[in-house]
Design goal:
Elements: H1 2-22, H2 26-46, H3 50-75, H4 87-112, H5 129-139, H6 141-166
Amino acid sequence: MELLIFYPLGGLCLLLALGVVFNNSPIGSAVSLIGMMLGLAAIFVLLQAHFLAILQVIIYAGAIMVLFMFVIMLLNLKQDLTWKTRDRNLFLSILTGLLVLGVLYKFIELTLGTEFNNPAEVPNTFGTAEEVGTKLFTDYVLPFEVASILLLAAMVGAVVLAKSKLD
């Protein structure tokens, strides 16, 4: 029964992730990213990680995406963002396509050679507030602080860019 819910959710997340990449508008990309994060929260609910699902909605789809939307609107990007065809872009596009095909081939090769009869056992404490808090403030405190400093630096940089445009 869970697979009947998981596969459509996974497909929806995949389509929204492609919408982030291929959307012409920065606002449209941000809205697609919000939808993808909400789909990911639903997948966390399927895994019985309700706390992680709530964190996904409140922190990522809520706070951080509001920050992204604020920065996008503060920069006041115009809609005249068009790709210019150049020889270098064509070469890099072909090279990137070959790289993606190679990774996809390796992924399929590994997937077909693996048996999925014995799924991993998820511990009972997976996704609880206590488990997340313990891991976040013991094992991952340095990456947590580095991420907060990077977000602060990005916000200050966006304000400086917007202020220089206004002056």
